[in-house]
Amino acid sequence: DLADEADLPILRPEISIKIAEPKKFIKEFSRQALNDTACFEKTLDSIERDVQYMAQRGALWAEGNVARLRQIPFNDQSGACLDALLGSGAVQGSGLNDIHNRAMTAWLQMAEQALLKNASSVAIVNMAELIKPNGYLAQLQARGYSVQEPVDNP
Questions:
Q1: Is the pTM of this model over 0.85?
Q2: Residue 84 in contact with residue 36, Cβ under 8 Å?
């Protein structure tokens, strides 16, 4: 890939999850039914509706029209699917409840390291997570970084 050709490092944030009794956890998890109806519905909705917005989002991103991009609804089923997984009884006492926050923290720490070390960096992140009010860009701003959005094109 391009990073390898340019001899550029690829950094991937990681988090560790320690489960005290893995066999017991797997046994309990496999016995319980997931309340994954919302996840399933949002996934189907994403397949049906979100495809129409993909090209539009790409064009708006390429133009730098962030204001219009924020107006297009994001049907991000990952939240509903993660809620279904984390809502199961087996997961409740496992320490996995804050996995989303831990993943965001790990990403932000790696982004800060890259910003301090490199003249330029590229990050790949879910668009909905990037621009939502408490998403990655907002978190970087909260840490004191200046985030400049492109000037909107009329």
A1: no
A2: yes
